[in-house]
Specification:
Largest sheet: 8 strands, mixed
Order of helices and strands: EHEEEEHEEHEHHHHHEHEHEEHHEEH
Strand order of the largest sheet: 8-9-10-5-11-12-14-13
Number of strands: 14
Strand content: 15-25%
Shape: globular
Radius of gyration: 22 Å
Distance between the termini: 46 Å
Number of helices: 13
Bound molecules: adenosine-5'-diphosphate, iron/sulfur cluster, magnesium ion
Structural class: alpha/beta
Length: 364
């Protein structure tokens, strides 16, 4: 979803030929990640956890980042927050433009102001970000006093409102509870309330529902959706489960082995995936929109080790469509439709029959 702004009157008043056309001009993205590279130096070698990743998030939109475990999703989000543990990790290259400014060039002090204030993050396990020895109320009011300069009393009132907004019953009373006195789903709600306490422009949700059971998962996703609409917060939701992003994102970026392998509108990704990895992910989840029941087929094998990846398609050892050419080059993203890119050498779709010959035969 593109947001637009109108050309200001002082520009409209300029004499021709300086006058711009009276069209609306697309706004720059809120977040633009360009060619991000994040590496970890380990005893076994350099882990290229994120290897040339680019994507953007527009204001008010929801982007899904999808991929199996270990493909670099969390390292991408921690790089944006400048929270990569160093050593062993470091951002080896690229730019992270937030509202036009490269976060990688900011001082730690400037970054502290952005974190929590303008970009907030929620994690899979709320216990890792909630302090077990402070009441939930104190944790929320502390952030409000620090970032929003609210008085203690105003912070308490706002904290009650926030808990109410995320659907916690009797919010005034629950302020005095400690995190362990909340259920898993309620703790996740508390963390969302904390993340939203300072009206961030961007919310990064890293596997926010992975630890929750299915009904609670649906409630939390619904909550994130509702808050996004009410507060106009842009959301970047990270998950290993394509099903999670189906109903709530505008666009999807698919990651594999530290790289972006497909990107497009959610509609295009679900209706016409063009990278065999995305096709594999879709074949492994049940779909409500299908006429006939179909066998669910998981992707065989495991993602590759990210140390010394050979110069071949990283998905080739697992790909049903692998050909000789795939073993000699790294496919780059190429346009496969309007605003739709895929990193595959061939024009493969959901309807391309899987060749009889097994991929392993190619590699032996
Ligand atoms: N502190 C670390 N030291 C070494 N390797 C790391 C570290 N953190 C992450 N990695 C590696 O980076 C890769 C990507 O991890 P991550 O971003 O957490 O994956 P996910 O997509 O599951 O979120 C993995 O191979 C992981 O082992
Ligand atoms: S480039 Fe080859 S191995 Fe890689 S996804 Fe496409 S068909 Fe499969
Ligand atoms: Mg992760």
């Amino acid at each position: 979803m593109l947001r637009f702004f109108t050309i200001p009157p002082q520009i409209m008043a300029l004499p021709w030929p300086n006058k711009l056309q009276p069209y609306e001009v697309p706004m720059a993205p809120l977040l633009e990640v360009r060619n991000l590279q994040t590496h970890f130096h380990t005893q076994d070698g350099i882990v290229k956890a994120v290897d040339g990743v680019s994507f953007h998030v527009n204001r008010g939109e929801t982007l899904g980042i999808v991929g199996e475990s270990g493909c670099g999703k969390s390292v991408t989000s921690l790089s944006i927050m400048r929270l990569i543990p160093c050593p062993p990790g470091h951002v080896a290259g690229g730019e992270i433009l937030f509202d036009g400014k490269d976060l990688l060039g900011l001082s730690e002090e400037q970054m502290r102001h952005i974190r929590g204030n303008r970009i907030a993050m929620i994690f899979q396990d709320p216990m890792t970000s909630l302090n077990p020895v402070l009441t939930v109320g104190r944790q929320i009011t502390e952030a409000l006093e620090l970032h929003m300069q609210l008085s203690r009393k105003a912070a308490l009132t706002r904290a009650t409102e926030l808990l109410d907004m995320v659907g916690i019953p009797s919010p005034g009373k629950r302020l005095d509870n400690y995190p362990h006195q909340f259920s898993g789903g309620m703790r996740q709600r508390v963390m969302i309330a904390m993340a939203l306490s300072c009206d961030p422009e961007l919310l990064i949700a890293d596997e926010p529902t992975t630890a929750l059971d299915v009904t609670i998962q649906a409630q939390i996703l619904e909550l994130i959706n509702r808050l996004r609409d009410e507060l106009q917060t842009a959301v970047m939701i990270i998950t290993h489960d394509l099903g999670v992003v189906a109903g709530m994102t505008d666009r999807v970026t698919v990651m594999y082995a530290g790289r972006v392998v497909e990107e497009g509108s959610t509609k295009a990704i679900f209706a016409n995936p063009r990278m065999p990895y995305t096709i594999g992910l879709l074949r492994s989840i049940p779909r409500l929109d299908e006429q006939e029941r179909r066998k669910l087929t998981p992707i065989r094998g495991l993602p590759p080790n990210l140390i010394d990846l050979p110069a071949m398609c990283p998905f080739s050892p697992r790909c049903d469509y692998v050909q000789e050419a795939c073993l000699h080059q790294i496919p780059h993203l190429r346009a496969v439709g309007p605003d739709h890119h895929a990193a595959c050498l061939f024009d493969i779709t959901m309807n391309t029959p899987i060749p009889e010959r097994r991929a392993e035969d190619m590699l032996l």
